[in-house]
Amino acid sequence: MMRRRRCLVCHTLFEADARVGKRQTTCSAAICQRERHRHNCADWRERERSAVEEEGIRRRLGVPEGEIRLAAVRDECGAKVKVVV
């Protein structure tokens, strides 16, 4: 039998799912699951910041992946962003 744990979001005690084991950090409440998802997405965006920024530039320019032209980036975003790309 698994030990009861405290949810990192609402701080209530819950029984962790045996299939998940020690990795489960939040209870099954919808609010807690949304908050966990929001936090994990924010962590991912921070780790992958350069890819997220590149995707934003690509979307603004309407250019397919791998075809970013430096002149188009300079015209859209300015000279400083061109150095980052």
Mean pLDDT: 81
Helix content: 40-55%
**Count the helices. How many?**
4
Cα end-to-end separation? 52 Å
By oligomeric state, this entry counts as: single chain
- Beta content comes to 5-15%
Task: Work out the count of structural domains.
Answer: 2
Low-confidence stretches: none
Cα shape = rod-shaped
Query: How many β-strands, per DSSP?
Result: 2
Summarize the structure.
By secondary structure, the protein is mainly alpha-helical.
What's the helix and strand layout?
Layout: E1 4-6, E2 13-15, H1 30-47, H2 49-61, H3 70-77, H4 79-84
Antiparallel strand pairs: 1-2
Commentary on this structure:
The protein is mostly helical and 85 residues long. It has 2 domains: 47 residues, no CATH class; 37 residues, no CATH class. The protein contains 4 helices and 2 strands; from the N terminus they run E-E-H-H-H-H.
Features:
rod-shaped; 53% helix; 4 helices; 85 residues; 2 strands; 2 domains; mainly alpha; two-stranded antiparallel sheet
